């Protein structure tokens, strides 16, 4: 924990805890629903495909119900995290989502360069020179190690095609 | 004596120059992985697993297991120098390791930690050498019911042993089973739980889950604290090493006890973390200078490190001999076996002698190499920690993406990784354990198969799990482990309500 002011506000831990239990419970319901569709009874070849997942789903729902009950009784008023901390987390999640989402179109290398550069420049506040050195260096090293040395192909986009790699 | 001959043959395999090179590379990468935030043993091995697809299986497992040893060593560096446990089982090392470093004795603490780690690992490897073939031979007689009983015991001990609330452990574990069930049903060949999404035909790969849950999730947790990351420095010179080594034999009793605790706890899943705490706790109670624990006592470093390393190593015993991994990292290694086309379990000892004994021999050599590497290169590894998180974090994220992509050459997996990452962050914040989730994804299919096959044999009667002495004993142990937590929780709640 950092020694930031404790007065800052944020979502209550209890809320998240309840949300998490509900989320897992819903997941359990989906599993039960899917198992019912696959068939949970005893077929010609023994237990059908949904047999095992059905009980797994039931256990998820049951455990979540108990977790939910525990979470609701929780009254310590803890914060899940401060808004500032969550902003920090989101400042990584959102660009990573864009990075991951753009990968099928522009390839891993270009996406990684932009992502590293963005991260270092805006979150880290590094000089352009350092930023560019790392942002270009990392994909180049990756290319050499993965594609050349270990022969593992990575997704490529228009730029690599143009370069003929 | 046949084992001894096999072991020597294994040494011949492990001592090939190519394998020695991989060993040193593995250890070095492993220590770096252990030192860096956001890259633990499990997801470090998962990310690097695709690199081994083209290697012979024995070389591949030597490199990957060495990454694991390296990560175990690396955890101690961050615990002692920066009070940041690299792995959950290094937490107990911070209690006395960090105070020692603050008192200007970091070299002594590090030497003690590394040496104890080595001793613990060595003890566990010797145990594996002696016990694993016996267990495997015994397990060859297991039918589906016994197999299921072993899985049952493994998962029940998670519920009983983990410090998280039992119902959260169950919820996390069952989610893993559900995720494992998605896709093609291995027995009937029927599709299930895919809801028409073609990407889910092959189900969820646990490697993606590991990289997301442990890698991305960890980065997000670290981001909460911002980019400020304070580093320190350390040097170890030969004089300090030799001086510490002269002191260490005096604590042989603590070492031996910690080895035993570590091996015992390591064989049962979820063991390494409780092993380190238990060993620390017992050492504190029994040591002559027990009152001084927490203020920089060398014995307080020896006890948890020995136990954690012994547990981390012996986690490979059930993985090799029964096909049930004792830790998330062992689970990733087991996933590797499947990818290389080997069937984990007792048959390995019969069909893949070279592989098994090459691996066991490499454990001896790898840990020795690890000790030498960490003792000589601590300043370099500590320097890595001084690279600011603002540079490290994007690089780790990119590495995770590469690792996730190269498992199946699929960009869908990379997106899935991010989803698992956010999920991992939330689960961890809400105190849900991740290890049983991952293990359930790995073992889900096999556990289900064993379960259904046993029911097939018994025409649907659950009595098959209590049909003979062996299977009943394992099941009974499992039930004890399962309800152990319930009893404990009930007891403590009773106590708090009375107080």
What's a concise summary of this model?
By secondary structure, chain A is mostly helical.
Which features characterize this protein?
heterodimer, A: 165 residues, mainly alpha, two-stranded antiparallel sheet, 5 helices, 2% strand, disordered N terminus, B: 499 residues, two-stranded antiparallel ribbon, 21 helices, Tripartite tricarboxylate transporter permease (chain B)
Explain this structure.
Chain B: Keywords: Membrane, Transmembrane, Transmembrane helix. Chain B: This is Tripartite tricarboxylate transporter permease. Chain B: InterPro entries: DUF112_TM (IPR002823). Chain B: It holds the Pfam family TctA. Chain B: The chain crosses the membrane at residues 20-49, 61-82, 109-136, 148-163, 169-188, 200-221, 322-343, 355-381, 387-407, 414-443, 463-487. The complex is a heterodimer of chains A (165) and B (499). Chain A has two domains: 13-73; 83-163, no CATH class. The longest helix of chain A has 42 residues, at 83-124. Chain A has 165 residues and is mainly α. In chain A, strands 1-2 form a two-stranded antiparallel ribbon. Chain A is 72% helix and 2% strand. Residues 1-6 of chain A have low confidence and may be disordered. Chain A has helices at residues 13-38, 51-73, 83-124, 128-149, 158-163; strands at 42-43, 46-47. Chain A is flat and about 60 Å long. Chain B is mainly alpha-helical. Chain B has one domain (2-489). Helices cover 74% and strands 1% of the residues of chain B. Chain B is built from 21 helices and two strands. Chain B has helices at residues 2-14, 17-35, 41-48, 57-82, 91-102, 106-139, 144-161, 166-181, 206-224, 238-247, 252-267, 272-286, 299-314, 316-322, 328-339, 348-351, 353-385, 389-408, 411-429, 435-457, 469-498, and strands at residues 183-184, 191-192. In chain B, a hairpin with a 6-residue loop joins strand 1 and strand 2 (191-192). The longest helix of chain B has 34 residues, at 106-139. The model of chain B has no long low-confidence stretch (mean pLDDT 84). Chains A and B meet through helix 1, strand 1, strand 2, helix 2 and helix 3 of A and helix 8, strand 2, helix 9, helix 18 and helix 19 of B.
